[in-house]
Amino acid sequence: MVEKLVITGNEGSALAFKQIEPDVVAAYPITPQTELMHNFARYIADGLIDTDLITVESEHSAMSACVGAASAGARVMTATSANGFALMWEILYIAASSRLPIVMAVVNRALSAPINIHCDHSDTMGGRDTGWIQFYAENTQEAYDLLITAVPIAEHPDVQLPVMVCYDGFIISHTNEVVEVLDDKTVKDFVGEYKPRINILDTDNPFTFGPLDFHDYYIEHKRQQVEGMKHAYNVIPEVFKKYEDVSGRRYEYFEKYRFDDADVVMVVLSSTAGTAKVVVDELRGEGLGVGLLKPRVFRPFPHDKLREALKDKKSIVVLDRSDSFGAFGGPLFTEIRSALYGIENPPEIIDFIYGLGGRNITKDELKTAFMKAVDIAEGAEVKNRVDYLGVRE
Amino acid sequence: MKKGWKDLPIGGIIEDAANSRNFETGSWRTFRPIFHEERCINCLLCFIYCPDSAIIVEDGKMKGINYFHCKGCGICAKECPPKANAIEMVREADYAEKES
Amino acid sequence: MANLKELASRPERLIGGHRLCAGCGASILVRQVLLSIDKPMVLSNATGCLEVATTIFPYTSWAVPWMHNAFENAAATISGVETAYRHFKRQGKIDKDIVFVAFGGDGGTYDIGIQSLSGAIERGHRFLYVCYDNQAYMNTGIQRSGSTPYGAHTMTSPSGKVIPGKMQKRKDLTMIIAAHHLPYAAQVSPSHWRDLNKKVEKAISYDGPTFINALSSCNRGWRHKMEDTIEILRVAVDTCVWPLYEIEEGILRITYKPREKKPVEEWLKPQGRYKHLFTPKYEHLIGEIQKDVDQRWERLQKLEGCFVGEKDK
């Protein structure tokens, strides 16, 4: 049974958490994640679900307790943002390297300093090499859906990796939208019963978790971890397909919007893609062959699929909502540019860093970005391949 | 032969609990505790103070030392009650010479 | 309370073949703690000597389920394990009683892990946290910690020409933990195994968080002969440098009072880390150390006095 609700991103995520009903959640308050946990705590307080919530004293302990509970065979979830995500950092690696299928909602928010509570992607982009699978949701619907799909992906025997589902702080987390939700039973059946790989509580079959590796084993363990991510690359579309069967909503590695016949393409993550679709429509109205590509999965990065999709375009404009200081372009740009390396006559590609600390991105600014790529497609010289959008000089 | 990544258990765990029983640390010794059973009063202080779980106790009686693990720290000899003095530390080199 | 014959009949949980130094205090302490627990157990271990030297892949010295996560989070980690346990127990998916024990060194407990420990205790998880306090960061090569005593030489508080070792006094972690009003907190020393055994048995009997702070020598950091490990710990107790006491349901009780309190020199002298105190330039510090030990001991006895007769009420 499908129901339509008007809810915020945090309410939608909380509902996904509730319907998944993990065994253990450990979380710490941080804006703009807080409302997710408010809602979730209320579900528990009202006896609607049987989850144990550990109200830890820091995000570091949140992820540490998640690792502990997951090693005990529990299905585990958490949520955070920004500085909280940064504080988890050390344990994010341990969760992934220990191959624990924890699912986390990250409400994207800028990192300090200066302290700022609004959206950008500097938190999770900084965590892109932690070994977690990363999904980026455009809106509440996607956040809700991707959280549900994250569970069987993470827990797949060939994957066994944690998944973070990211959505934009305030822009999505605090904005009401119409969302189609599934009934509890459908979600419960979809995520299924968790069959943990390990259980530290099995005192009859003791094992040692988290030993010391020297140079004689460490790289083998890392190589093995890579394999989990490789498997995830195949498992993700399988789970998305199954989810389509129950929800009617189709997910892929990336969404294409007025893409196939476009010469000029914008690549952008998360909520900005929504605004960009409007701009695409307007520019199409002006006769310009523009389109959009919105990646949903950043790790594993679908480099071959993106190369195939983008190879015949004339020019590409990437929008990065985080900077990579000292690098040549933002994280999305460097990945896409790398994916296009080695093909014949690759499209020109430019990058704009935008929206840091929640700076609003307007249609006019997106048009400016598009027009620069249009000019390049028509032969203009590329100046400032990496530039900034919406910044006062 | 060390295992490759395809054969290691996932996530870095060690499935075979307590397998360090097969790892020799006895070669660290420069001094060797010699147990004189006839003097032993079976107070078992050597057992409770051994850092290497190397005191062999059977049916509540001290039966000897696991030389595969004993690192020769000498705590057992030091803590053995003076009236018993059942453990004596001898230089490994001297012991080896005597044995040969 | 178990006698040695009984303890020796129990299965060993920390097996030999680990790579801790000869004469290490940590493994003696851990063996004594684990032999005192005659139930299924799950352990969590902070990063430190005990962790690295017992689990060098592919070898492990642990015969019971054991997990290491990171340095500062042994308590948070076990709180996650314990929560999952309670969850599954409530759901009828597990029926046996499991004891949860976390081990951390003084670095992992007094310093970097104090927040994680404080949080886990405040939340009321049922687990025993055992700090093996060897009074410095020994695993990383003997650096001063919040537990390193005044005047002790470490690599980051070296005794030099103008500075005689660590110039700050150690914090009183046991009392900090006791301020959480947890059911049971105690100080132990492996030299007094019977006292230790009794305290561990008490600690695990409580349905809540409990804490044991154990003095544990490191002969590399303290610079003493390896066979003297137990002797030096005994001296720590007999000089009242390391008093043995417990705070059970709020009531403080000193569990061992030396017949004759030994002078602090007996504790300092055998340890190379205090060698500089026995030179004309710095010998006046010994008096200061004695004064501090006396003050802390007197204060502890006064505190105990407040509770006289309390238990009978």
TrEMBL record, chain A:
Gene3D superfamilies: 3.40.50.920, 3.40.50.970
InterPro entries to which the protein is assigned, alphabetical: PFOR_II, Pyruvate:ferred/Flavod_OxRd, Pyrv_Fd/Flavodoxin_OxRdtase_N, THDP-binding, Transketo_C/PFOR_II
One function term, GO molecular function aspect: oxidoreductase activity, acting on the aldehyde or oxo group of donors
Pfam families: PFOR_II, POR_N
Domain named Pyruvate flavodoxin/ferredoxin oxidoreductase pyrimidine binding: residues: 17-240
A single BP term in Gene Ontology: response to oxidative stress
Domain Pyruvate:ferredoxin oxidoreductase core: 262-365
Keywords linked to the UniProt accession: Oxidoreductase, Pyruvate
SUPFAM superfamilies registered for this protein in UniProt: Thiamin diphosphate-binding fold (THDP-binding), TK C-terminal domain-like
Protein name (record): Pyruvate ferredoxin oxidoreductase
Organism expressing this protein natively: Candidatus Coatesbacteria bacterium 4484_99
UniProtKB/TrEMBL annotation, chain B:
Transmembrane segments: none
SUPFAM superfamilies for the chain: 4Fe-4S ferredoxins
Domain 4Fe-4S ferredoxin-type residues, every copy: 31-60, 61-92
Keyword vocabulary terms for this entry: 4Fe-4S, Iron, Iron-sulfur, Metal-binding, Repeat
Pfam families: Fer4_21
Gene3D superfamilies per record: 3.30.70.20
GO MF entries: 4 iron, 4 sulfur cluster binding; metal ion binding; oxidoreductase activity, acting on the aldehyde or oxo group of donors, iron-sulfur protein as acceptor
Keyword Protein biosynthesis set for record: no
Listed InterPro entries: 4Fe4S_Fe-S-bd, 4Fe4S_Fe_S_CS, PorD_KorD
Protein name, as recorded: 4Fe-4S ferredoxin-type domain-containing protein
Organism ancestry: Bacteria, Candidatus Coatesiibacteriota
